[in-house]
Amino acid sequence: MPIPLKNPERIMRRLEWTVIRRLDGLLHGDYRTLFLGAGLDLADLREYQYHDDVRRIDWNVTARLDTPYVREYHEDRDVTAWFLVDCSPSIDFGSRAIRKSGLAQDFVAVLARVLSRHGNRVAAALWGSALHAVIPPGAGRRHVLAILQRMIAETRPGDGRVTDIGAFLRAARPLVARRSLVFVLSDFISDAGFGDALGRLAERHEVIAVRLHDPLEGELPDLGLVTVEDAETGEQLFVDTHDRAFRRRFVEASARRETALRRTFRDAGVDALELSTEGDVGDSILRFAELRRRRNRLAAGAVLPRALRRPDALPVA
């Protein structure tokens, strides 16, 4: 496996040539409506349409007119984007050329640079078994490099405690004072439920859950007798991956976790962006942006293309 780049400047230069320029051109003019929520100044009222955010319903007008109405707002001129980054030991894993921690670094570098180049500020909070570092809002290339440097430094071995995403979100919530765009980066492997904490964060902010994933976490290959170790607790287990029944149970358990995780995101009212160690960060961001753009057009009353009119054919962002 190639040794991951640990120099923030080298990471940034690589991404500026391969990803950032491409995204900045393709998202220019759209990135604000695709990734940033509305402002706080009321602009108008209109009838509720399918896919509208229910949090924007004006209940007083709805009660008077007996028809659901939603509020529309003037967009903020500048927005602060927060990156809440899970730096627990389970993130430092990868069966491909890049680990989940490297995937998180690439994503933060790309989005932070694209956003800050358009006058927005970016900030970060880093978590392991506790809140280890907070980088306050700032702008510019040097500020993004400082965030990357702290992310690299925060990668550390396990201390026997399992990650608690809910505690992370509760600790980070007071830090994000004004309405912001919030990216939560994690593999969401957590000791306890975090849906309530995620939902509370989404009540005030535009929240996007960025899930870091490795294909080996969903399906085990036939490798014979192997020893697997929990990256956070250090617990080891001797398993026979040659056993088809064991591999099938592993896949079934993984599918149940996937279903529960998607339900948690849906109930919390947040969109999820999936990043895989076998995929391309730029392609994943563009695919997510296209799904958001398509949903926004539907919310504005656009006609669904014929090829997507089956209920199960429309992708969920």
Q: What can you see in these coordinates?
A:
By secondary structure, the protein is an alpha/beta fold. 39% of the residues lie in helices and 21% in strands. The chain contains 9 helices and 10 strands. It has helices spanning 8-27, 31-35, 59-65, 100-116, 141-153, 165-172, 195-204, 244-268, 281-299; strands at residues 41-47, 69-74, 80-86, 121-127, 131-138, 181-186, 206-213, 225-229, 236-240, 271-276. The strands form 3 sheets. Strands 5-4-3-6-7-10 form a 6-stranded mixed sheet, sandwiched between helices. Strands 1-2 form a two-stranded antiparallel sheet. Strand 6 (181-186), helix 7 (195-204) and strand 7 form a beta-alpha-beta unit. Helix 6 runs parallel beside helix 7 (195-204). It is globular and about 65 Å long.
Keywords for this structure?
single chain; about 325 residues; alpha/beta; six-stranded mixed beta sheet; two-stranded antiparallel sheet; 9 helices; about 40% helix; globular; disordered N terminus; disordered C terminus
Short characterization:
The chain is of the alpha/beta class. It contains nine helices and ten strands. β3, α4 and β4 form a beta-alpha-beta unit.
Oligomer: single chain
In what range is the share of β-strand residues? 15-25%
Mean pLDDT: 80
> Which segments are poorly predicted (pLDDT under 50) over 5 or more consecutive residues?
1-5, 302-317
Strand line-up across the major sheet: 5-4-3-6-7-10
Largest sheet: 6 strands, mixed
Helix content: 25-40%
Rounded to an integer in angstroms, the radius of gyration calculated over CA atoms is: 21 Å
Rough outline: globular
Secondary structure class reads: alpha/beta
Give me the strand/helix succession: HHEHEEHEEHHEHEEEHEH
